[in-house]
């Protein structure tokens, strides 16, 4: 998301970035600032963001963070473990749904 590179963004996010580049740039800057606000690794941040997306039941965000995790070298099994960890606090149905959303990305090509 950094740098406002909006050519690669899918769907509605890409549309918003194209139509309102200054808003997208501010959003990207906020993301960079929050990433730099502590000592978490890139891997830790990605897995936490995936967990938050699962908790929010945001299919699009789960897809996005799964896809980005794969591109950052996170094993598919580790992404799926985040969904399994959701069983206790969020319930089996939400965790299973999240697992299918993660599989949408991990099962590609």
Structure description:
It is a single chain. The chain has helices spanning 11-19, 21-35, 42-55, 59-71, 76-85, 87-90, 92-106. It is mostly helical. The chain has two domains: 2-35; 42-106. Helix 3 (42-55) packs antiparallel against helix 4 (59-71), helix 3 crosses helix 5 and helix 5 runs antiparallel to helix 7. GO terms for molecular function: peroxiredoxin activity. InterPro entries: AhpD-like, CMD-like. Residues 25-98 form the Carboxymuconolactone decarboxylase-like domain.
Write the SSE topology.
Layout: H1 11-19, H2 21-35, H3 42-55, H4 59-71, H5 76-85, H6 87-90, H7 92-106
Tags for this model:
single chain; 109 residues; mainly alpha; 7 helices; 73% helix; disordered N terminus
What is the gist of this entry?
The chain is 73% helix and 0% strand. The protein is mostly helical and 109 residues long. InterPro entries: AhpD-like, CMD-like.
């Amino acid at each position: 998301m950094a740098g406002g590179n909006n050519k690669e963004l899918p769907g509605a996010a890409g549309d918003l970035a194209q139509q309102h580049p200054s808003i997208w740039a501010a959003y990207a800057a906020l993301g960079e600032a929050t990433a730099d606000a502590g000592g978490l690794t890139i891997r830790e941040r990605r897995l936490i963001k995936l967990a938050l997306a699962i908790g929010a039941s945001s299919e699009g965000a789960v897809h996005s963070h799964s896809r980005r995790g794969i591109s950052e070298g996170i094993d598919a099994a580790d992404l799926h473990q985040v969904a399994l960890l959701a069983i206790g606090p969020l319930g089996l149905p939400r965790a299973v749904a999240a697992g299918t959303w993660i599989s949408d990305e991990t099962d590609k090509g």
